[in-house]
Design brief:
Blueprint (H helix, E strand, L loop, with lengths): L1 H14 L3 H27 L4 H7 L11 H9 L2 H32 L5 H10 L9 H10 L6 H9 L4 H13 L3 H8 L4 H9 L4 H17 L2 H6 L9 H4 L4 E2 L2 E2 L1 H35 L1
Antiparallel strand pairs: 1-2
Helix pairs in contact: 4-15, 5-8, 5-9, 5-12, 9-12, 9-15, 10-11, 12-15
Length: about 290
């Protein structure tokens, strides 16, 4: 009996956290609250009037909640149109990027050809090229091709980036995949596209989910390319560009901006929450490879 009691006491003592763990937890909790507070304040401010925002300061709970800011953002500021434009542009960009990166990674992993090392080196070099330096060549090329101020031009500009990380994630995954799968498909008469689309691509769920999330965040939040490509065509504006509507000279609609910002970031948060498992496994698989 005494031995059982001593064992229980020993287990309870081992489970008790040390002072260092408690202090670390409190510090991390404080940092987490400090990081989350601006988002909580923005959510609260979206239900206030502009006068209440200026008078309440850092107060979170609105005294007289109102949904008028969401109405102004969705209808008066045409965020219903900008939201649809962002959905169409982002979805098309994701499809192009996934197909391009997956096929590139598949070829680099499964085939040996002259100049392969040079191509891989050139892809790696693009990591060190600032994104802003490619803006002017992209705009000039699109203008010469008649794609400026068009949706297809904006989609191709967003999808035309390097996305080198996704390409090498696909390459690492395909290198770990048994070649016997492709050889079995070729024996059955399947060609390159049939083997890739029917056999190999369905296996890349985590990598594809990671690529979709990264591309989604990049295309959905991109400001400079949509600004340039829709400068003369307001009907094609996306959400980040539409945020400028709330800043007109000295007049700023603070509650409308908060509501618009929440409408802009909500899809990204939801996409990450539902695809987090695949995102983490895709990154882990890429690091392992």
């Amino acid at each position: 009996m005494n031995s059982k009691m001593s064992t229980a006491i020993g287990i309870s003592r081992r489970k008790r956290p040390s002072a260092g763990v408690v202090i670390s937890f409190i510090l991390l909790l404080g940092l987490a609250l400090l990081w989350v507070y601006p988002f909580i304040w923005m959510f609260s401010a979206s239900f206030k009037s502009n006068q209440a925002i200026l008078s309440d300061g850092l107060r979170l709970l609105p005294r007289e909640p109102t949904f008028s800011a969401y109405g102004r953002a969705w209808n008066e500021a045409h965020f219903n149109v900008y939201f649809l434009n962002s959905v169409i542009t982002t979805a098309a960009t994701i499809v192009i990027v996934v197909l391009r990166c997956s096929t590139s990674g598949y070829v680099l992993a499964m085939y040996d050809f002259r100049g392969k090392k040079l191509i891989e080196a050139m892809l790696i070099v693009t990591f060190f090229i600032p994104t802003g330096t490619m803006l002017i060549p992209t705009v000039l090329m699109s203008k010469n091709m008649g794609l400026l101020n068009t949706r297809i031009g904006l989609i191709l500009a967003l999808a035309g980036g390097g996305q080198v990380a996704s390409t090498f994630m696909y390459k690492g995954f395909f290198q770990q995949t048994p070649r016997e799968l492709v050889e079995a498909g070729e024996i059955d008469g399947a060609g390159f596209l049939r083997c890739f689309l029917s056999i190999m691509l369905p296996l890349t769920g985590p990598i594809t989910a990671t690529t979709v999330i990264l591309t989604f965040m990049g295309a959905w939040n991109n400001f400079m390319l949509p600004l340039v490509f829709t400068f003369s065509n307001a009907a094609l504006r996306t959400l980040p560009v539409g945020m400028m509507v709330f800043s007109k000279g000295d007049m700023v609609d603070y509650s409308g901006q908060c509501a618009a910002a929440l409408l802009s970031i909500a899809p990204i948060v939801l996409a990450y929450v539902f695809c987090q498992k695949y995102f983490v496994s895709g990154i882990a698989g890429a690091i392992k490879s």
